[in-house]
């Protein structure tokens, strides 16, 4: 591509809220046929709210929330913020955790008031050697609403569930429709549970999902698609998404997301919504047409 046509595209992109890192990103994007989208913070607002605390028999609702929120004070994950904010809104007084540890893609662990507490997904519960099979129906009922369910473990037993809801961004449905119309194969990838992922995907007309993925899996999924001949763009916002953004033919970061995601990406969507991808595709087409 000529420097002039690239400059024009870069300028138009910037006006439309799409920051284009370099000519290669624009050239490669014209050939992309497969779009991987992260769920949390990309399709959804990434601002989850606590919607339910479900104690197990013999446990108290406020106490389950207090333990969960005390532990989550140490985490910067959006789920953690939702739990801490939920506790504050309900006037629950928190204490301080010790031995805090974040388990990437799974949850958090630590000691609260001298007792071992853990909070996270089923993988975390399984890693602790526990069985949460009895809780499946209760958890699934929430997941079917698109909620993310976390298990609270106290003294080596599940003390309850906490559930958060993260609304879909207002702009997401129309942007996805336009991206489908442009002919992209669209795959949603998420560290979240399969059932939650399916509920969200169904509402958005996305028919391919990769759920329960650990952060390192996202880059591997992209590599496998590339090996099958796909040209892949990945849209994501999180610190965890950076390796996948780098692996993709074109990484697309949400401008509202983590700095490291933006650094790893070829495009940045300033407003943090997927409309920018539709614009970027049109720009890439127009630019490449002009120079051929
Ligand atoms: P995503 O791909 O949806 O952005 P992550 O890899 O960040 O997901 O997290 C995957 C899952 O791990 C979450 O859905 C949650 O169940 C669990 N998890 C991660 N961090 C935390 C945390 N701080 N507290 C509770 N659960 C967590
Ligand atoms: Mg995310």
UniProtKB/TrEMBL annotation:
Compartments reported by the entry: Cell membrane
Domain of life, per lineage: Bacteria
Entry similarity comment: Belongs to the cation transport ATPase (P-type) (TC 3.A.3) family. Type IB subfamily.
Protein name in UniProt: Copper-transporting P-type ATPase
Native organism: Pseudoruegeria aquimaris
Gene: actP_3
Shown chain mapped onto the complete sequence: 431 to 722 of 779
